[in-house]
Specification:
By secondary structure, the protein is an alpha/beta fold. It has 4 domains: 29-244 and 257-265, Alpha-Beta Horseshoe (Leucine-rich repeat, LRR (right-handed beta-alpha superhelix)), CATH 3.80.10; 306-427, no CATH class; 431-526, Phosphorylase Kinase, domain 1; 534-730, Transferase(Phosphotransferase), domain 1 (Orthogonal Bundle). The chain has an 11-stranded mixed sheet with strand order 1-2-3-4-5-6-7-9-11-13-15, with no helix packed on it. A hairpin with a 2-residue loop joins strand 20 and strand 21 (462-468). Helix 11 (550-570) packs antiparallel against helix 17 (720-734) and helix 13 packs antiparallel against helix 16 (693-709). The chain is globular. The chain starts with a helix and ends in a 20-residue tail after the last helix. The chain binds 2-acetamido-2-deoxy-beta-D-glucopyranose (6 copies).
């Protein structure tokens, strides 16, 4: 054997070796565990896992033939996670969010990222001690994952030196935040909205030592006591503490944080001056609800007597029972009525704790039934200087200028005594406010708690928010706020649901869901990325948009016409929209237009009659004349509204624009005047799109159609069938290639209930 032969044999041997290795490598050491996973899922077919080698499965990542990542979120998976998963000793990422998994969570030790969110059917579980073995853990998220009991105390730096994200919102946790959190590297802490009866409670003082925090969300719990000092939380950007029972003064250290961009403190019992956040940098909600800042003006100090009272309750750590009955700065007025020489401070049967401060001898204090109140002890003024009330002189800024200092405490006591009665009501309202369905909560999550930054628009009866779903898709959520659901609001809410659950069409915006709680209502729609037609027609400059081209306008007109045609007859019943205008026409990707806002829509009871008696509602400038006179509504009303839209598409002018010269304020008469001759008509056309001869011909045809729709006598107006025919022939001439033939009627046969 010469050397070249040796070389070849070696090569062959190597090839052989490597191919056997290859064969060998096909059965990953994790294959059994992964098959166990597949077998324990109720519907593994959703994942398309068929290859014998789990490393070739979708949503699975391997390294060195070992499974390192399982990312099977949002597959509607049922079944459970098998205990065998613990054999996956290289697994570092486990993501199973938005499924319907049941059963316990296996113990996993190698993990760096665990995401279990939105598995509401997992049987109630506690975070297991065994998770402590995953010492490299960086992310643990389990919102809506049916976790019970208390938050374990091992999330500190000692156990998890790298933990950055801890999310446990909307579970059934109770008890308080463990003090071990003080020593943690957590940046994102989300414990909001627990479902348990007692919710999370106790103080939030531990936050002051969690110096890595950037996002804190503890809203809708039962936290009490004052806000801590925030001066060491220099990275904090988002703080959401709304809907707790926090009391005391909002510290300056919070107001002054350099990176703060959102802060929600509403629906607590905070006191003292209204904090003044920099509006240009901070999105804040501190006001409505039960907070009792002394003055509405931010940054303005309270009257001195209020400060006195605040300093008393400070010594008791601002008991919630006082704060709930706080009356802002009007204290001095309230107090004026109580000049008794002997008063009783009755705080019995509460949850006060700490030392009872030193009161005048004429004050008797009832503290029975407060298990944590230390026995009444006299404290000398030296020990508690801020309690030495009689030494504080009456101040000129007090409303009650006649009082003398010795009455101060009497007033205080009487106020407290009297106001405790109010509490019952306050708590009752608070509890009512807190009861929202899970669906409601999910929507609140999607819209970032109905953040102002998510507002897409406002209507008469509600605000529309953008919502982000976990799969990256978007929704639009219309919130009809408390108070808005009065008689008319409720009517519109119901009408919208009634109509949109009966009609489905690709040119009508789809209702995806809705819920109502008391006098608040939420409607969920498909998200229309380009916003309203009025935005593109009238506000394009301010919004930095491109003006619409004629071909786009023509197609928008056709789509709206098709939507109306369907409403008026192609659906087995006849509906009237009743409020057609550019702000109710929404554009999606590719400027695909859909009709929205069916709050005023009506079902015509008998097909063929096409008209109903109804109260006049709708928008001036778009209402048909016969309805202003008789108050009736027919499908021709929509035809009338539609032709105003045609005129707006042609001219780029609004139906009524009070900023224009008098003869141009009302679009319809002006348009008809301009349309009488070819030269004036040319000048009426929106100059933002170029008008060559071909365009002009098309525009003129549409103008004729608009004129025809416009005739005063309803019976002479064409119906939408005719309008659709005219427009589709124009669109065809204009851009034959763009016409979607399978979309002639655009009927969506999928009629699933939302
Ligand atoms: C997991 O490991 C245990 C022993 O630690 C073994 O009994 C079991 O069969 C393994 N399961 C799988 C699916 O490999
Ligand atoms: C999820 O599964 C349920 C049945 O378990 C089914 O009714 C539902 O339609 C599924 N949803 C999706 C989005 O596949
Ligand atoms: C909150 O705590 C109070 C007492 O501190 C208790 O009465 C109440 O039931 C708790 N839960 C809620 C949801 O308010
Ligand atoms: C918090 O709630 C628990 C019940 O879950 C209760 O035992 C405890 O006393 C409460 N603590 C405070 C400070 O209210
Ligand atoms: C915060 O840390 C300081 C020491 O750095 C300690 O004295 C204080 O008790 C801690 N506070 C809380 C609420 O953990
Ligand atoms: C408080 O003191 C009174 C006597 O002054 C005593 O009878 C009572 O038992 C004490 N209460 C407690 C809780 O220590």
């Amino acid at each position: 054997m010469n050397t070249s032969h040796l070389g070849i044999s070696l090569l062959l041997l190597l090839c052989l070796l490597s191919s056997t290795l290859q064969v060998h490598s096909q059965s990953s050491p994790d294959a059994l565990s992964m098959k166990a996973l597949k077998a324990s899922l109720g519907n593994p077919e959703n994942l398309g896992w068929f290859d014998p080698d789990p490393c070739k499965w979708k949503y699975i990542t391997c390294w060195n033939n070992r499974v390192t990542k399982i990312q099977i979120s949002s597959h509607n998976l049922t079944g459970s996670l098998p205990v065998d998963l613990k054999n996956l000793s290289s697994l570092i990422v486990l993501e199973v969010t938005y499924n319907q998994l049941k059963g316990p969570i296996p113990s996993l030790t190698s993990l760096r990222s665990i995401r279990l969110d939105y598995n509401p059917y997992i049987s109630s579980w506690e975070i297991p001690e065994s998770i402590k073995d995953a010492t490299a853990l960086q992310i643990f998220t389990a919102d809506v994952a049916n976790i019970w009991a208390t938050i374990p105390d091992f999330f500190g730096r000692d156990t998890f030196p790298a933990l950055k994200v801890l999310r446990l919102a909307m579970n059934n946790l109770e008890g308080s935040i463990p003090s071990s959190f003080a020593k943690s590297s957590i940046e994102t802490l989300v414990l909001s909205d627990q479902n348990s009866i007692s919710k999370l409670n106790g103080s939030v003082a531990v936050l002051q030592n969690m110096t890595s925090l950037t996002l804190v969300s503890l809203y809708a719990n039962n936290f009490t006591g004052p806000l801590p000092d925030f001066s060491r939380l220099n990275s904090l950007e988002h703080l959401d503490l709304k809907g707790n029972q926090l009391t005391g003064i909002v510290p300056f250290s919070l107001v002054n944080l350099p990176k703060l961009s959102t802060v929600y403190l509403n629906n607590n019992f905070l006191q003292g001056p209204t904090p003044e956040f920099d509006k240009s940098k901070v999105d804040s909600d501190i006001g409505d609800g039960f907070n009792s800042f002394c003055l509405d003006d931010p940054g303005v100090a309270c009257y001195s007597r209020v400060n006195v009272l605040l300093s008393i309750v400070e010594s008791m750590d601002y008991p919630v029972v006082f704060a709930q009955s706080w009356v802002g700065n009007d204290l001095a007025v309230t107090l004026n009525s109580g000049r008794e020489s002997h008063v009783t401070l009755d705080v019995s049967n509460n949850h006060l704790y700490g030392k009872v401060p030193n009161f005048r001898p004429s004050v008797s204090v009832e503290t029975a039934g407060n298990p944590d109140v230390q026995n009444y002890t006299k404290v000398s003024p030296a020990e508690a200087p801020h309690l030495s009330l009689p030494r504080i002189p009456p101040s000129t800024d007090d409303l009650d200028r006649n009082s003398n200092a010795s009455y101060n405490l009497g007033y205080v006591i009487v106020a407290v005594y009297g106001l405790i009665i109010i509490i019952g009501l306050g708590v009752f309202m608070y509890v009512r406010k807190g009861k929202h369905s899970r669906y409601w909560r999910l929507l609140r999550f999607a819209t970032n708690n109905f953040s102002d930054r998510k507002i897409l628009g406002r209507g008469g009866f509600g605000t529309i928010y953008e919502g982000d779903l976990p799969d990256g898709s978007k929704i639009a959520v219309k919130r009809m706020k408390a108070g808005a659901l009065n008689e008319q609001g409720l009517k519109e809410f119901k009408s919208e649901i009634e109509v949109l659950t009966k009609v489905r069409h690709c040119h009508l915006v789809a209702l995806l869901g809705y819920c109502r709680e008391g006098n608040e209502g939420l409607l969920v729609y498909e998200y229309m990325s380009q916003g309203s037609l009025s935005r593109h027609l009238f506000n394009w400059k301010e919004e930095g948009l491109k003006p619409l081209e004629w071909s786009q306008r023509l197609r928008i007109a056709l789509y709206v016409a098709r939507g109306l045609e369907y409403l008026h007859g192609l659906a087995n019943q006849t509906f009237i929209h009743g409020d057609l205008k550019p702000s109710n026409i929404l554009l999606g990707d590719d400027m695909h237009a859909k009709i929205a806002d069916f709050g005023l829509a009506r079902l015509v009871p008998h097909k063929g009659r096409h008209s109903i008696e109804t109260r006049l509602v709708g928008t001036l400038g778009y209402i048909a004349p016969e309805c202003i006179v008789t108050g009736c509504v027919t499908t021709k009303v929509d035809v009338f509204g539609f032709r105003v839209i045609l005129m707006e598409l042609i001219t780029g002018k609004k139906a009524i624009d009070a900023t224009l010269p008098e003869d141009m304020v009302h679009l319809i008469p002006w348009f008809r005047r301009m349309h009488t001759n070819k030269d004036t008509f040319r000048t009426a056309i929106d100059e933002t799109f170029g008008v060559d001869e071909e365009t002009l011909a098309s525009v003129s045809k549409v103008a004729e159609l608009a004129d025809h729709c416009c005739t005063g006598e309803p019976s002479q107006r064409p119906d939408m069938n005719h309008v659709v025919n005219v427009l589709s022939s124009l669109v065809e001439v204009w851009r034959p290639v763009e016409l979607v033939y399978d979309d002639i009627y655009g009927i969506n046969l999928n009629r699933d209930e939302p």
